[in-house]
Structures are given as C-alpha cells and as structure tokens.
Design goal:
The protein is mainly β and 118 residues long. It is globular, with a radius of gyration of 13 Å. The strands form two sheets. It has a six-stranded mixed sheet with strand order 2-10-9-4-5-6, with no helix packed on it. β4 and β5 form a beta hairpin.
C-alpha cells in the first residue's frame, strides 16, 4: 500500500529526493513519515508531517538538510535530502502513522536504499 522509491548511490554533498506513493484510500487521514535503518543498526525516525500538512518533525541529525512534504492529489510524500553525508547511508522506509509523532504506525512501506559515498 506504500511504495517507496528514489534511492540510489550518490556522493557526499549531493542531493536526492525520495518518494512514497500511497495506494491506500485513507492516505489523507494519516500523518506520514520516513524512517531509516543503517547496516547493523536499528530503525530510526527521520521526519514526519501531519495530515493537515501544517506540522513537520525532524530528527536532529537531518534538521536543516532534509525536507518532508506531501502531495494530496498524487497521494505521495517526499523526502528531499540535501548535503548528504556518509552517515545518511541506510534503507529508508515510509510509514503512515496516527499522528506526527509517529509513535503508532498503521502502515509500513517498502524500503529504498540510499548509499552515500565519501
């Protein structure tokens, strides 16, 4: 129901935009977010946006570099990633949550791999 794509291999300092397309009907009712999981590490929160498109949250590690947005007409949520660092290398997952805290996830999407070479 949630399909993430847009990952790839980039160099440090480059930009990349991830997208997550939702096929589920209640897309507009959920907060949407991005998580990531680096090799050998647990899944961590990256960014989220509420269903009203008025509130966003970011992990401290990506503030000022990543921007989350959503397009209701396309039922897609985006993650614009700028000034990428090697530590951003991970599989990125999108998710639909009850609210912007993303404490309660209703749907997990597929992952897309981002590799940043230094």
């Amino acid at each position: 129901q949630l399909q993430a794509f847009g990952g790839g291999l980039v160099q440090a300092g480059d930009s990349l935009r991830l997208a997550c397309a939702a096929s589920t009907r209640p897309f507009t009712s959920y907060a949407m977010g991005w998580f990531r999981q680096a090799p050998g590490k647990g899944r961590e929160f990256v960014a989220s946006i509420n269903w009203r498109n008025t509130t966003t949250r970011y992990a401290d590690s990506v503030k000022g570099r990543f921007t989350i947005s959503r397009d209701y007409a396309e039922k897609t949520v985006y993650l614009q990633m700028n000034s990428l660092k090697s530590e951003d290398t991970a599989v990125y997952f999108c998710a639909a949550g009850v609210d912007v805290t993303m404490a309660r996830i209703r749907y997990w999407g597929s992952g897309t791999l981002v590799t940043v070479s230094s």
